[in-house]
Specification:
By secondary structure, this protein is mainly α. The protein contains five helices and no strands. The protein has one domain (23-79).
């Protein structure tokens, strides 16, 4: 992993872009999965977190947009009654 991190940092420097930690890829991966509908339990397993609360503490903020979306769907269902 250290070699990959060093290579990433060299490439960032070559491209003259802002530096970021390789962990950003993990966070992006998880965020994309959540935004496409994967459940938190599945994400917990995929990321190797020991508890669901750990996954929720780190990625729970992403669910705010999904909450808004759920409310929209509920509102649409009620309006169609």
């Amino acid at each position: 992993m250290v070699a990959n991190h060093k290579q990433l940092q060299r490439n960032i420097k070559k491209l003259n872009i802002p530096s970021f930690a390789s962990h950003a890829f993990r966070h992006t991966h998880a965020s994309l999965l959540l935004n496409t509908g994967i459940g938190y339990k599945e994400l917990q397993h995929r990321l190797g977190h020991t508890t669901l609360s750990m996954t929720m503490d780190i990625y729970g903020h992403i669910s705010k947009d999904r909450e808004k979306q759920a409310f929209y769907y509920f509102e649409q269902a009620v309006n169609n009654l």
